[in-house]
Design goal:
Layout: H1 2-8, E1 13-16, H2 24-27, E2 58-59, E3 68-69, E4 79-80, H3 99-102, H4 104-108, H5 118-132, H6 160-172, E5 177-178, H7 193-197, H8 202-213, H9 236-239, H10 241-246, E6 250-253, E7 256-263, E8 269-276, E9 281-286, E10 290-292, H11 296-305, E11 324-327, E12 330-337, E13 357-359, H12 364-368, E14 378-383, H13 393-401, H14 406-416, E15 420-427, E16 436-444, E17 450-455, H15 460-479, E18 483-485, H16 492-495, E19 506-508, E20 532-534, H17 549-569
Helix pairs in contact: 5-17, 6-15, 13-14
The protein binds flavin-adenine dinucleotide (FAD) and iron/sulfur cluster.
Length: 573
């Protein structure tokens, strides 16, 4: 987003990417089925999310680039070393943070407030949703704000299992509403939108129109996690980088592993060192402004490794806050079998290969009345249906088919397939002193760059929240007349997913109003280094239950507007 915003506003941008170049138009396996893949597409060490997943280089482990965890801490870190990073295969769930989410401390005294309000961010959410294309509904629920009229793409129709879930949740007074995902359900209005998004900027309008003209609407092809060759879903490599490159203002260097931001004698950022991974040669490039967006923890790592006489603890880290207040999303899940979904006529209900409906957090009232054992909330993502079977699905049927084989097994498979559902809670984690990353005193990666060591601890709020998720899923399944598969945990410690495993890690270079307690101002500009900006999830002050990427993009847009303005005013030299 930063490369796009800065280049369309006429700045010369050098984009350094640690991974390889990646082109979703030619590289996405749109029509291949599991039978075309080794092991029917099952995941392995180098492709944990399956053979067709868009992550070409990376995963839970990046060969030659380890990280460590402190004794007693458990933390997982998913990295993608490729142009566009994890936006190539993310779930595209794009929920706005609401008014409460920007002021959590003011509401319950925990964590910190963001330096801005929801009202400040709302126009940037609107613009980001229009730019990338997000479908969703028009509901306006407590702390689940609606977009301005005409911003969202129409939501896709609900599928059978979603309607059945809504019916059950209506009884339980849990709202089920259209999900918001960064997928085009119709083509973008390229005649109007570029002017609306970039008034008076002819360069931006031209490149954006070209880009929008090349994007098709979703035709329900295959899993969005593979990427999308028709550019219907949002990934940086189809939506932001092509128009940025078309400005002629961007130079892209791939396989460029940045290791350090350098400073001049006055403490201004002067450029970066990067290692050319193909030749292993260390290069230094100079810049008037340095923008870090290497993903939350990687940005911290670069900053902590940028030590100098002026910044002995890492660049812009006089506060000591760099690396601190690392957060992930609280996750817990259950699956279920629903007899009412058995034996339905086999129709194509693939849809947009992601959620069409979801449940936003609904118990604000109970929380305010002191009836809940934890602060903050969670939303529920759920799925099921009869999409293309992946590896393992028919194996899972065996406990239902009673050892049948031949014709009888086929009948049983037809009966049961499509009757399984999953429910995942995605909740807010409150930042704490015990969850952070720092530079490991010993370990280095294959490029000789010191690596991160993670410390992790959940508080009782998150643990209780995970138990509440299980209880809620069990109630929904019971209301649907179904049966939970697995154990409903009353102990949240047993329900909660490992830190980092939900892949929403944010924080570590947080923004704020007090330079002693934060690293950046509200525009992602370092308090101590005026020409250093951060535009990824590292800037997060809290981690609302809303999945972070839409907010990362909207914040990055706002930071870039400010940066361009400051350059024009001569405030950054
Ligand atoms: C399977 C999956 C599903 C997800 N689903 C959702 C979802 O539905 N909704 C949601 O909001 N979020 C989701 N996420 C999270 C989402 O992908 C991230 O929030 C988002 O991609 C973060 O963007 P980023 O640019 O900060 O980091 P990344 O996307 O990780 O990009 C960082 C980039 O920087 C490069 N880089 C790293 N280090 C260096 C270095 N030292 N030098 C140069 N370049 C470097 C990387 O190669 C990469 O290209 C999901 C993630 C995964 C893996
Ligand atoms: S489901 Fe739609 S948006 Fe997703 S990859 Fe397939 S065609 Fe593209």
């Amino acid at each position: 987003m930063a490369a796009y915003q800065l280049s369309v506003q006429g700045l010369k941008v050098l984009l350094l990417e640690a991974g390889r170049d990646y082109d979703p138009v030619t590289e996405t396996p749109m029509f291949q089925t599991p039978k075309d893949a080794p092991l029917r597409g099952a995941g392995g060490a180098d492709k944990p999310f399956g053979f067709y997943d868009a992550t070409v280089d990376g995963g839970w482990r990046v060969p030659g680039e380890p990280f460590t965890t402190a004794p007693g801490s458990q933390f997982q870190w998913w990295r993608a070393r490729m142009l566009g990073g994890r936006t190539n295969h993310w779930g595209r769930i794009s929920l706005r943070m609401g008014p409460y989410d920007f002021k959590p401390k003011s509401r319950d005294g925990l964590g910190e407030d963001w330096p801005m309000t929801y009202e400040t961010m709302a126009p940037y959410y609107d613009k980001t949703e229009l730019l990338i294309g997000v479908y969703g509904g028009d509901e306006d629920l407590e702390n689940t704000p609606r977009s301005s009229p005409g911003v969202l793409q129409p939501p896709p129709a609900a599928r059978t299992y979603e309607l059945l879930t809504k019916q059950a949740c209506d009884h339980l007074k849990i709202p089920v509403i259209p999900a918001h995902r960064a997928v085009l359900t119709r083509r973008q209005d390229s005649a109007r939108l570029p002017q609306r998004l970039h008034p008076g900027n002819r360069l931006a309008q031209r490149v954006l129109k070209q880009s929008m003209d090349q994007r098709m609407a979703c035709f329900y092809a295959t899993d969005c996690g593979r990427g999308c060759s028709i550019k219907a879903n949002f990934q940086s490599t189809t939506v932001l980088i092509p128009p940025a490159m078309a400005t002629g203002n961007v130079t892209l260097i791939t396989d460029a592993m940045v290791r350090e931001v350098t400073v001049d004698t006055q403490g201004r950022a002067s450029g970066v060192h990067y290692i050319d991974k193909l030749t292993r040669v260390d290069h230094h490039v100079t810049a008037k402004v340095v923008v870090l967006a290497a993903s939350a923890c990687e940005t911290s790592r670069i900053m902590l490794n940028s030590k100098s006489a002026l910044f002995p603890n890492g660049i812009a880290n006089g506060s000591g806050v760099v690396g601190k207040y690392l957060m992930d999303t609280v996750g817990a899940g259950l699956s279920a079998q629903i007899p009412r979904l058995e034996g339905l006529p086999p129709i194509n209900e693939d849809g947009t290969a992601g959620i069409h409906m979801y449940m936003p957090w609904w118990l604000y009232g109970d929380q305010a009345a002191g009836k809940m054992s934890f602060a903050r909330g969670y939303h529920i993502e759920f799925g099921g249906g009869r999409s293309m079977p992946g590896p393992g699905i028919f194996g899972g049927l065996e406990s239902f088919t009673g050892g049948a084989y031949g014709k009888k097994f086929k009948e049983e498979a037809r009966r049961y397939y499509g009757s399984f559902m999953w429910f995942d809670g995605r909740g807010e984690m409150i930042p704490n002193e015990d969850s952070y990353c720092e530079i490991d005193p010993v370990a280095v990666d294959q490029w000789g760059i010191p690596v991160l060591r993670f410390h992790w601890k959940w508080s009782q709020h998150e643990i209780d929240q995970a138990a509440h998720m299980h209880k809620t899923f069990a109630e929904i399944v019971a209301q649907m007349g179904g049966k939970v598969q697995g154990t409903v945990q009353t102990d949240g410690n047993k329900a909660i997913a490992a830190g980092g495993s939900i892949i929403h890690e944010v924080g570590t270079v947080r923004m704020g109003t007090d330079p002693k307690k934060s690293v950046l101002n509200e525009f992602g500009q370092a308090w101590e280094v005026k020409n250093l900006f951060v535009t990824d999830g590292a800037t997060f002050v809290s981690n609302a239950d809303k999945n972070p990427t839409l907010s990362i993009l909207a914040l990055a847009w706002r930071s870039c507007d400010y940066l361009v303005d400051e350059l024009k005013k001569g405030n950054i030299s």
